[in-house]
Amino acid sequence: MANRALLVMDVQRDIVSIADDGSGYLPRLGRAIDGARAAGIPVIYVVIALRPGDPEVSPRNRVLTAAVRAGLFTEGAPGTEIHHDVAPRQGDVVVTKRRGSAFSGSDFDLVLRARDIDSLVLTGIATSGVVLSTLCHAIDLDFDLTVLADACLDTDPEVHRLLTEKLFPQWADVVTVEDWLKTLAPR
User: Fold this and answer.
1) What is the pLDDT of residue 187?
2) What are phi and psi of 19, to 5 degrees?
3) pLDDT tens readout for residues 149-160
4) Where are the alpha helices (DSSP H) in 70-131?
5) For the chain, where are the alpha helices, taking DSSP H only?
6) What's the whole-model pTM score?
7) Is-contact 88 64, C-beta < 8 A?
8) Which pairs count as long-range contacts for 68-75, CB under 8 Å and 24+ apart, including other chains?
9) pLDDT tens, 129-148?
10) Is there a contact between 101 and 137 (Cβ–Cβ < 8 Å)?
């Protein structure tokens, strides 16, 4: 059996305040986290945080430059904290990245190798950002992949739909939180 981990990516206070559409995203994500913990699946949080002064941000990086101008992602700022509704618990790993993918500018790969994890269950904000970037990177590293479609969120619902219904199924199992939780139940 694969060694799985549930990834909770970029579910930070400022990002949630921008993207949450009132559809019950955080409670649904919380059910996935609780289910993973109950099944003994590690929960790994991934956050984006940039050093004060943003020395790692190139003016050629449109996404990060815009985020910096908007005052987002500064390391240590309250808005960069993981949202309290889905906060890590003792024993959960928190990985800090400096780019879109969980693998870029972080020790994420080291954490996965140390735990012999070869299967990832992806959740997070935004579907077109961290989820897409991490999924593409993980494909090239030969991870077994699952995307919890309703535990991903994007500011553009049509982009979310296109990715979770058309693109991601080519590379990963795409299921709902409830369907994934059923696979964790003892038989």
Assistant:
1) 54
2) -100, -25
3) 999 999 999 999
4) 108-114
5) 13-19, 25-38, 62-69, 108-114, 132-140, 157-162, 177-184
6) 0.94
7) no
8) 72/14, 72/15, 73/14, 73/48, 73/49, 74/49, 74/50, 75/49, 75/50, 75/51
9) 999 999 999 999 999 999 99
10) yes
Please check whether residue 41 is in contact with residue 2, taking contact to mean a CB–CB distance below 8 angstroms: no
Q: Which two tokens stand for residue 26?
A: 């955080």
Beta carbons within 8 Å of 136's beta carbon, 6+ residues apart: 101
Dist CA 24 CA 42 (whole Å): 23
Which range is least confidently modeled, 34-38, 58-62, 111-115, 144-148?
58-62
Which domains does the chain carry? 4-184 (3.40.50.850)
Residue type, 178: E
Q: How far apart are CA 123 and CA 149, in angstroms?
A: 8
